[in-house]
Specification:
- With 204 residues, the chain is mainly α.
- It is built from 8 helices and no strands.
């Protein structure tokens, strides 16, 4: 006779496990962000890079546009892996849409997603306030800056590379962090996120 009793999974474990709705919403967010990435790469970046010829590192000020998926995914889904999943999937979709950066965008998405994920993990996936959002955007921006210095900016002076990383971190903190935090709060107020962790937190 088996006397083993089956106990329900701890609440924290249940809260962090992915549901079908989480996966579907994450995929939709990635698709939307991929369009943003495409526009950022093909429409905005050529204009800004031309305007920043006098001081190339200043293009880092728009870097946050390529980081919004990680911040948005982490803030909406609020589960381990969400920031990485959405950022990486958005990059893959951007690759299919076509960009002059080619399929290197997938590597960028992977690294940027890891950066955002590490920041949320540092808060043990318990804080999703403005500070956590800004930190996720900033760390993701640092990963972007270092990666792009290696891939594209290797001929720049080291001081220019440092400035680029700093500006990318600031841009990430503002665009992918604080702006996405404000957007999620606004969405949660409408009730469209009620089936997700972010919506339940807003109701509380």
């Amino acid at each position: 006779m088996n006397t083993t009793t089956h106990r329900p999974a701890p609440r924290a474990s249940r809260q962090r496990s992915w549901r079908v709705v989480d996966i579907v919403v994450a995929a939709v967010l990635a698709a939307v962000c991929a369009v943003v990435f495409w526009a950022w790469s093909n429409l905005l970046y050529p204009l800004i890079s031309t305007a920043s010829v006098a001081y190339p590192p200043s293009v880092g000020l728009i870097a946050g546009g390529w980081l919004v998926a990680g911040g948005l995914g982490g803030l909406v889904i609020r589960k381990p892996g969400a920031a990485l999943f959405v950022e990486l999937l958005a990059a893959v979709i951007e690759g299919f849409l076509g960009t002059h950066f080619g399929w290197l965008v997938v590597l960028s998405g992977l690294l940027q997603g890891i950066g955002a994920e590490l920041a949320f993990a540092a808060f043990r996936y318990r804080r999703f306030d403005a500070l956590a959002a800004a930190a996720a955007g900033a760390v993701s921006g640092i990963f972007l800056g270092v990666n792009e210095n290696i891939l594209y900016n290797y001929e720049w002076a080291f001081s220019h590379q440092v400035v680029y990383v700093v500006l990318a971190a600031v841009s990430g903190a503002v665009l992918a962090g604080l702006l996405m935090w404000a957007a999620v709060r606004a969405l949660a107020a409408t009730g469209v996120l009620d089936g997700l962790a972010s919506g339940r937190a807003a109701r509380r």
